[in-house]
């Protein structure tokens, strides 16, 4: 049993909330444990701060944190599962997946109560291809405008009047106690979430058995099963939260219901599929769903984006 654990974390308000949440859970499990936060800036944060950047790529928010784990400067890193690439560097891995917060997308606006309430031609802010392709499909009249930055930056730009509405993850707003900003939690039919959205995962060194053992109680089995199915879709399609891919699993008793879609950024083509199966087959259900999306033409859309 360790007496000290260091958490590598980004310094956005949301990342700090998540790290502090894990710190509090560990300290309540282990009264003699001290947990420290090691704050750092990632490539992803620099891009968020840069007004002209449209650079994509996987793992932008996790690489520096992983270096700190490999160097031994930190023992664990707390991630939003939506931002975690499928493959981990040699010697690192995911120890646990924690209980999921509300996985939906939130409609946020100062003047309108829902997507349906938006007048023709309204300006909606999001930089997520997954969100914009679904918005365009349902409402071809809307004008989608780029919107980057952390949650506070995005809300400030909404309040400045640059957008009629913006779309954010419900989970982030709830964690930051900004639930009064949410006008509508969008249904899966309106905006199918990103794989892993709303769930936190904890990464550590694969040979650090003491830490892995201490983290074990934080694992939430239902969430882990759902997120495993969703991540298998992204892995097969070679995409993450930067791609126009949505996938969302629900678990009822032992049965997974997994839905997925790949949309063209212009909102003109939407390839959708779903599958049911046993929870023990989470990963293979995700692969099967991805294969079905490919069979229906998903690669044409994705190849054009990945180039
Ligand atoms: N890509 C940024 C990101 N990564 C995780 C969250 C929200 C919290 C979560 O999904 O757990 C967000 C912000 C957003 O999409 O609005």
TrEMBL record:
Read off the Gene3D superfamilies from this record: Periplasmic binding protein-like II, Porphobilinogen deaminase, C-terminal domain
Q: Which residues form the Porphobilinogen deaminase N-terminal domain?
A: 5-212
Task: Provide GO CC annotations from the record.
Answer: cytoplasm
CDD domains on file:
PBP2_EcHMBS_like
Cofactor binding note from Swiss-Prot or TrEMBL: Binds 1 dipyrromethane group covalently.
Q: Which SUPFAM superfamilies match?
A: Periplasmic binding protein-like II, Porphobilinogen deaminase (hydroxymethylbilane synthase), C-terminal domain
Q: What is its EC number?
A: 2.5.1.61
Q: Does the keyword Membrane apply?
A: no
- Porphobilinogen deaminase C-terminal domain location is 225-294
Q: Which molecular function term from Gene Ontology is one that the record holds?
A: hydroxymethylbilane synthase activity
Catalytic reaction(s) noted: 4 porphobilinogen + H2O = hydroxymethylbilane + 4 NH4(+)
Which prosthetic group or cofactor does it need? dipyrromethane
What pathway, per the record? Porphyrin-containing compound metabolism; protoporphyrin-IX biosynthesis; coproporphyrinogen-III from 5-aminolevulinate: step 2/4
Q: Give GO BP annotations, semicolon-separated.
A: protoporphyrinogen IX biosynthetic process
The S-(dipyrrolylmethanemethyl)cysteine modification is found at: 241
Sequence similarity: Belongs to the HMBS family.
Which NCBIfam families does the UniProt record give?
hemC
Other remarks on this protein: The porphobilinogen subunits are added to the dipyrromethane group.
Q: What does this protein do?
A: Tetrapolymerization of the monopyrrole PBG into the hydroxymethylbilane pre-uroporphyrinogen in several discrete steps.
Q: What is this protein called in UniProt?
A: Porphobilinogen deaminase
Gene symbol?
A: hemC
């Amino acid at each position: 049993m360790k007496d000290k654990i260091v958490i590598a974390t980004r310094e956005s308000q949301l990342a700090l909330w998540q790290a502090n949440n894990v710190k509090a859970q560990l300290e309540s499990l282990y009264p003699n444990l001290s947990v420290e936060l090691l704050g750092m800036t990632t490539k992803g944060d620099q891009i968020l701060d840069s007004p002209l950047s449209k650079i994509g790529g996987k793992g932008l928010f996790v690489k520096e944190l992983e270096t700190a784990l490999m160097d031994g400067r930190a023992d664990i890193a707390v991630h939003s599962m939506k931002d975690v690439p499928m493959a981990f560097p040699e010697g690192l891995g995911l120890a646990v997946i924690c209980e999921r917060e509300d996985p939906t997308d939130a409609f946020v606006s100062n003047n309108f109560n829902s997507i349906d309430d938006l007048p023709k031609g309204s300006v909606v802010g999001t930089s997520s291809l997954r969100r914009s392709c679904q918005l365009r499909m349902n409402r071809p009249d809307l004008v989608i405008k780029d919107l980057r930055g952390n949650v506070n930056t995005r809300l400030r730009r909404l309040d400045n009047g640059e957008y009629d509405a913006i779309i954010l993850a419900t989970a982030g707003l709830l964690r930051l106690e900004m639930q009064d900003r949410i006008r509508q939690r969008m249904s899966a039919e309106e905006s199918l979430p990103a794989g892993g959205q709303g769930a936190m995962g904890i990464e550590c060194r694969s040979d650090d058995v003491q830490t892995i053992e201490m983290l074990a109680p934080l694992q939430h089995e239902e969430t882990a099963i759902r997120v495993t199915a969703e991540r298998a879709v992204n892995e097969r399609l070679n995409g993450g939260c930067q791609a126009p891919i949505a996938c969302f699993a629900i678990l009822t008793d032992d049965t997974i219901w997994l839905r997925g879609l790949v949309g063209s950024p212009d909102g003109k083509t939407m390839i959708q599929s779903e599958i049911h199966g046993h929870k023990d087959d989470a990963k293979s259900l995700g692969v099967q769903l991805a294969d079905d999306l490919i069979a229906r033409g998903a690669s044409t859309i994705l190849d054009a984006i990945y180039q």
